[in-house]
């Protein structure tokens, strides 16, 4: 029987405190449903005493029937000098109506005396009283010992007294928080081990990533006796972020034999990571362990050859185990077999020694010499293969476009205007759009012109836009490479354009991006028909 680790997700509370992250109530409700489907044990969803949005969320989330996770409302101990019943924040926690609450309190004597300005004894009473109050009304209580590790190093006896106060109040778990994120793995292990040996209560760990070792710290805490691991789903949070639960679930479940989520749900790790990034309006880091686009990407010919023969030669797990997929990157060092696989995706009966294979390889080298880069833009290379083999019919023709730029007025955020005319099977459509710069305006106008013919483009948006000057010695006449990453909320693809004109380079990549989406939709329709 596998060992059990309780996964406690704080994406909607601690994650929401990250720079640039702002969840709507609808966003939070959607993430709650998906985390519950994944099978995490706890979802810490916000602080109902901190803002009206969280109050609204806790009202609406009561309509969701959770099957796997317990919803947790987060708040502090009572304030100094008042009774628990008189504390407005405590009453807000009650109004949330959750089965469990997380209460944070001070474990570092410096914070008690210099930050909240109360006595050490009063702080212990605040912890004990608050937890006892919630236990008397049958709530599960998770006690977050804020700044515990710094407190332990500064005043071990008092830090332990703060945990004792929580245990006396009846806390169901004691969570040791590396709130400043400054501890290293050996410290986390030693301190957690001493605490686990001292208390007959479940121990949890909450690590921040300020020294880049939040995942390692969390793993060492489990090694030392912790049974609950807190973090955010893809690692974003205050400052440098929190322990990344995607990585931790992968490590614990696939490497160490712990059960974190139901085994059959492991293949949801990657799709959910992309969904959370999408909802949070951030780009999921390509090199994120287990769930990143590059986690199972291979470029070198020897690596690719090895993986083709036996995947474990250069992969530590099977990508499909976590819902990810293998990618062979297109480049001049990729090797003939990789390019052949890309060609065979379009024309399955092409052989390694076919004349078409040699011609396409030559064309690849020519384009890369011109400045194209396909290792991150395989979809553009797919279109080149189709065009070269006569397997390509454009979904539309861009007949003409016009861009106007101007100094924006103080009242307007827009600085450019674009007008686009397209031809779809003999039907013409013209549209104009404003944008924050010429490329943004062109993108909007092009999509608006095509959405009448292809409504599926409504769901497509740009995730990333990269510009690289290839030969800076030519100054403003330099050749430009533009990489555009697009998504429809499920799939992600990247296209590339090269020109001495940044608008033209962007347009090449934009058109390819739209063509790829329409091509994928057509392929899905044909598969469904067959």
What would you note in describing this structure?
With 530 residues, the chain is an alpha/beta fold. It has 3 domains: 3-261, Alpha-Beta Barrel (TIM Barrel); 297-388, no CATH class; 397-529, Alpha-isopropylmalate synthase LeuA, regulatory domain (Double Stranded RNA Binding Domain), CATH 3.30.160.270. It has 17 helices and 18 strands. The protein has helices at residues 25-38, 52-61, 88-96, 109-114, 120-136, 148-154, 156-169, 185-198, 214-223, 245-255, 269-280, 301-309, 336-346, 355-370, 378-388, 438-451, 502-529; strands at residues 3-4, 6-9, 42-46, 70-76, 100-106, 140-146, 173-178, 202-207, 228-231, 258-259, 297-298, 327-328, 397-405, 416-424, 427-435, 461-469, 480-487, 492-499. An 8-stranded parallel beta barrel has the order 2-3-4-5-6-7-8-9, surrounded by 7 helices. Strand 3, helix 2 (52-61) and strand 4 form a beta-alpha-beta unit. The radius of gyration is 27 Å and the shape is elongated. The mean pLDDT is 90.
